[in-house]
Task: structure prediction
Amino acid sequence: MPHRLIRFGFSRKHPEPRMFTRHDSLKPGYDVVIIGGGGHGLAAAYYLARDHGIRDVAVIDKGYIGGGNTGRNTTIIRSNYLTPEGVKFYDESVRLWQDLGEDFDLNLFYSTRGHYTLAHTDSAMRTMRWRAEVNKHYGVSSEAVDAAFVKRGIPMIDMTCGGHAPILGALFHAPGAIARHDAVAWGYGRGADRRGVEIHQQTEVTGIRLQGGRVAGVDTTRGPIATSRVLCAVAGFTPRVLDMVDLNTPIYVHPLQAMVSEPIKPWLDPIIVSGSLHVYVSQTARGELVMGASLDPYELHQTRSTLDFTESLSAHILDMFPFLGDVKVNRQWAGLADMTPDFAPIMGLTPVEGFCLDAGWGTWGFKATPVCGKTMSHTVATGRNHPLIEGFAMDRFARYRLTGEKGAASVGH
Amino acid sequence: MKIMTCPLNGPRPVSEFVYGGEVRHSPDPDTCSDAEWSSYVFDRSGSPGIKYEWWCHIASGYWFIALRDTARDAVIATYPVETVRQPLEPAARA
Result:
């Protein structure tokens, strides 16, 4: 076996199949160009090829696939949102997640854990009951539970949270899950690649050509592409791409940081979220604690890390789990969150004909990856917004029809 | 950015300040169109650039203007509000 491995290492041919085909050059034109090779862009490419028979698609990314927010989130999947639009949309996503691993023939480490949103005040308990009722109305498993239930589910928690934020109860969402985020991007990428989609990494968009108010092509650092349909799925870089087609949106960009601890013995099964303490935490299959807090407090287009963040998040984690005092933080990172005023995405067709947008995913985009791919591929293929995303249309602001989603992660509410 | 120079209190740690958004000027509500007004209410300049922003020093409750590069996280200058009674010129986009 080692002999074979050495021969393999020295051979010029690598017979083992690679995840993706490497394309040396761009074609002069494609049916559809998808800007952004993250989970959302690759999922849209996958469903375009699989469900709509549109295979002449290029996915272009200025970095590498899954290197943006797809690889920077805390991998939580849930559907216990507050507004009917949100609940229906994310519930479809949770359903799509279930059989994705089989679809891809790739282990996504999809792990259903149960998800607790802790309530430390009476008013928070009231919101939890409200969310539970909205969820149940749409058939989502979700219930308001009392303090004893929380203690049974999370025996290691300090129910007083350091004495200053006693836990009164929680919203318990049994289908809450985590998954391996890189595998999601690779799975969608490989599935799209096998169906004829071209993935071009290290290819930055420098401009979008318009002719008579509609898309005519995309200019990139590796040459121009002619196309009549563009899907923009670039998260924190959305405003820069929108500047190329002269569209204004309410999107503003703040960094969102997260960190991970050294691996420790499995002790935390469910996913814990506390809006009051600005904490969400789960334990991965490797034993690391993945922890996140709230958005950075001001606009910034940079993925730097701060000590302020580590300090305040650690303090809140210790409020809940004082025994973690000796555990070390291993890594810390940030992503650029594209935020909207109503904490809901901006999706679908735009006033520029042929230019579709999948943006405003701020702090809640990973869990929606499959359903975004599904609905955006439908929108691109048919030229009409998918019914599930009608509430997220770009013109809702001009009509003062905001969605009022307060179930989003990492936002103060 | 770890330290910001407050026009009133001098250099202070950035954790003592809160961000109040970009300095913007409202269109005249009596004469502007509905589209202009909703665009003023909701739309933001989301791209990175050098922008005039409202900041407040929390401890003293003092609001002032900072010129900041949102790509590099660097404060270029800070001004008391009194010195900028005239509408600020839109900063050059970096």
